[in-house]
Write the structure tokens for this entry.
Amino acid sequence: MFDVMSFISELEKECSDFKRNLSHIDAEEQIDMIKMACSHIYQQDDLIKGIQQSKIDNRSLVVKFGMDPMDTDIMIDHMVPIVLLSKLQRMGHKIVFLIGDFTALIGDPSDSSIKQKKLNKKKIETNVKNLKKDLSQFIEVSKIDMPFNSSWLNELKLPDLVETMMELDVSSTLNREDFRKKLSNDEGISYAELMYSLIMGFDTLHIKPDLELGREDQWDNLHMCRRMMEAKGIKPEVIMTTHALPQGNIFSIDEEPVNIYHKIGQLEDKYVLLWYKLLTEITPSTAMELEKAIYNSYINMQTVKEVLARVIVSKIYGEEKSKLAYIEYIKDIVKNSPTKEIRMIHGSKMTIGEFIAASTDFTLPEAEDIVRTGGARALSCDGGCLTYVLNSNADISTIFFDKFYIIVGDKLVLRITK
């Protein structure tokens, strides 16, 4: 029989273990963890061989990831590749986190989330400082290389640039979806935008990584990097992009903790498992268990979302602030949901499932199912204590508060006075 409370407890514990040592797990499990986060991998066979050989040789793979320090809030979807980088770091691989201070002067044309604007060096320095602070919440910045691409691009000679350009076909760049869209809309494309992926390629030629990671919208840029390695006779890197989060669910990582609870609580059910895979430490095997539990209605979806929110808020703000924000979130549900007032007769005997069924429009099987799947919580009326209702067959008097709410899912509240 599925023990929902044990599963919830173990799920939250595993997903929150952002410092777990992954260097000792076998190559197959490392590959499965990488594949779980990635929408595209090219060439996948080379990734498998590379990971397996790195285990045999006890050699770290070099992983390149670049970010331009643009003047923008760091959004939760920007953290998806960072979470994967953290896992790769803990697998024992060398992370080169490239600060694109040179490319920030152009702006990545593939990144529609950034309003392109001219930046000066002073503003870029401020943005880099803020970027490092935000990144430190998700990855151990002190243990990664963080070079600035201006350190070599400022030294790039025009003859070297022209020589490389002559080896590459421009048609693949013009056929990119973002450029084709601009051309069809009679929008201008600057030469700097055309050269952005080429400049990224020079970064790759300098670093010579085994793997290069990017967000999904950087797929064309990463292919250019790989083509430039091939053109220069260098062993081509494996390129990977992470899955994108649906844009309607995005928020800044500086968002107030209680607001993050509300936004994750409003996720569409079909996206919840993807968020677990991309932003938590869930393992592939547990992800399969969670998917099965959701499919078979063994676990309440609102509870699944609340566990996810607790993991993410704890990661950003710490466990103590997360606990306080969670109670505030539940109190907000109480405040904004239809509430039915109930006074219990002293000494009355009734199971929790029977009590919910008698007090609502739910049938007894439906009420028992809500409790069984972890969908009911009890909150003391002073808001100081919150607990899951664990057993539909337990007597209602076992809830030890004198005045309390029972929150059923996220839409119905019973206010009980003993």
About this structure: The first strand starts at residue 38 and ends at 42. Strands lie at 38-42, 62-67, 94-99, 211-215, 238-242, 339-343, 376-380, 386-388, 403-408, 412-417. The two ends are 33 Å apart (CA to CA). The mean pLDDT is 89.
